[in-house]
Amino acid sequence: MIQSRPRPRPAAWYGAAFAAALMALTGCSSGASGPLTTSAAGASAPVPSPGPLSWSTCGKNLECATIEVPQEYTEPDGARIPLAVMRHRATDPDRRIGSLVFNPGGPGVSATETLRDLPRTAGTPGAFSPAVLARFDVIAMDPRGVGASRAVRCLTEEQRADAAGTAFDPSVPGGKPLPRLLADAAAFTDGCAEHQSKKFLASLSTDNVARDLDQVRSALGEDKITYYGLSYGTVVGPMYATLFPDRVRQMVLDAPVDTNQWFGNSLPLLNDVAVASERTLDAWFRTCRTEGAAVCPFGAGDPQAAFDTLIDTLEAKPLKIAPAEGTTPGGELDGAMALEATRALAGDQNAWPLLTSALLAAQDGNGAPLFTLWSSVTVSPFPVPTAMFEAHTAVRCADWQTPAGIAAHKAAATKAVHEAERIGTRAAYSALNCARWPAPNKDRVTKPLTGAGAPPALVVAGRLDPVTPHHWAENMTRTLDSAVLLTREGVGHGSYGINTCVNAAVDAALIHGTHPADGAVCTADKPATTRPFVPANR
Predict the structure, then answer these.
(1) Which of 278, 294, 334, 382 has the smallest count of CB within 10 Å of its CB?
(2) Which residues form the AB hydrolase-1 domain (predicted)?
């Protein structure tokens, strides 16, 4: 149920005059057809409109194509990049509205693979409703450097396997001693430069991704696109709306990033993420304690103390995990791995019963459930660290302004561990790769993304989001020239697809262009740390 809650809304920071100036700076034409122009450093160059896409069937109701775009829009006749595009045809073509482009986030998540899995992802964040699928061709484009669009590669298989098998000490900020972290950062960034050109790495910025989307729009023959972005997709959306405001029909931004922080100093941003994640773990502790030991037996009324003891115990003496065919190759579960699995599961309220069960098992000496969960959130089925991490790092390093001096990172690590006692160890020193990134992007767009001239955006935020804290959504609505904020109570990253109230609001925005009152609130199911029953052996 939506509850109206008035929220004071300061005037937008910048108006149409700034948007026009930014458009002039970037050289982006506002016409819906004809040659585009773009510039990052003042000199503009015409970019020919692409021809129609050549589609081929690649699944049930799915079509795939490739579009080539300039590696640098200031050099339209230079190197080009092939980008993977996928289309899910509107299931009710007679009532089709147009094309709905979406970005599932990351950065580094493959939009085409997400769209391919769409029938199996109902009830998860970002899953489109049947009503939306009926009215839109849903368009997925793997951003440059991601998925099937020349995914960034920085590590060898041996390096990946080594990283997967390393036991991290959670008592050390960052999980490893600083010299090892610096050596890892050097190996990673050197590998990135060895596997692809520095010019390609420098081109991975969000402003180029937005320009790529406009090339796709043109190739689709659409005057305007409807857009849904989740997490990092909420950086791409406002960038597109700022560069091409008259090409936006409607826009929904779910689990939003504060774009001013994203393009600024990355260390405060990472600190915000650590604190947000710690708050979701605290919410699990609080709920378990409130339910009482009869309902939530982990910790016998003091789950926080029991958790800290379990992490210390596992770090001192990891549990051996026997191989299980089709599930895990076996190994050891140490404290850092248990902490990482807990961090991921605590951030999803629907996963809390699973987390409770796994922690109880580990407490009883059975680490297999928690180890399997750790594997699912940190490594691929091989098992090696997911390749997404490499693309994720490359995109954010192309956007971020990260201090080069180690002193700033030491201070940020100390702050993170102080403000997020358990989760801060994960954030500490996590921007070292960007500090020594070998391909600085000197011409990225970093001005406030106001989207001036575009229709009002619907911004949807969870009250306790483990990745994008709620105040980021508040900041986004202040930065955007026109936006409405809808808040979902409860824990979780992403709201559309998991909450009936939010689903109705997002569907109305995408299909009809209607929004709830600014500051409206959607209630959530009461959180629970266990399933409706407690196993007899507990």
Answers:
(1) 294
(2) 100-264
pLDDT of 171 strictly over 90: no
> Which 8-state DSSP code applies to residue 479?
H
Number of Cβ within 10 Å of residue 153's Cβ equals 16
Q: Write out pLDDT tens, residues 7-21.
A: 333 332 222 222 322
Nearest 5°: CA angle at 483, between 480 and 485?
A: 120
| Sequence-ordered list of residues with C-beta below 8 angstroms from that of 285, at least 6 positions apart, any chain | 303, 304, 307
Residues in the chain: 538
**d(Cα 475, Cα 450) in Å, to the nearest integer?**
11
All residues at 6 or more sequence positions from 356 whose CB lies less than 8 Å from its CB, including other chains: 288, 296, 298, 529, 530
The Cα 505–Cα 458 span in angstroms is 9
Distance linking the first and last C-alpha atoms of the chain: 36
Q: How far is CA 153 from CA 8, 390, 401, 475, in A?
A: 45, 6, 22, 34
The C-alpha angle 219, 223, 229, rounded to 5 degrees, equals: 80
CATH of 2-148+204-258+454-522, one of 3.40.190.10, 3.40.50.300, 3.30.70.260, 3.40.50.1820: 3.40.50.1820
Q: What is the DSSP string of 338-350?
A: HHHHHHHHHT-GG
Q: Which two tokens stand for residue 194?
A: 């060895």
CA distances from 262 to 65, 173, 177 (A): 31, 23, 27
pTM, two decimal places: 0.89
* pLDDT tier for residue 387 given thresholds of 50, 70 and 90: low
Is the separation of the CB atoms in 528 and 16 below 8 Å?
Answer: no
d(CA 95, CA 489): 34
**C-alpha–C-alpha distance, residues 373 and 379, integer Å:** 10
CA distance 257 to 250: 19
Q: Which amino acid is at 473?
A: A
* pLDDT at site 388: 80
Tens digit of each residue's pLDDT (9 = 90 or more) over 61-71: 999 999 999 99
Q: Which residues pair with 59 in a beta bridge?
A: 62
What pLDDT score does 180 carry?
87
What confidence category does residue 166 fall into, taking pLDDT thresholds of 50, 70 and 90? Answer: low
Domain boundaries, the chain: 2-148+204-258+454-522, 153-195+265-400+403-436
C-alpha–C-alpha distance, residues 374 and 388, integer Å: 16
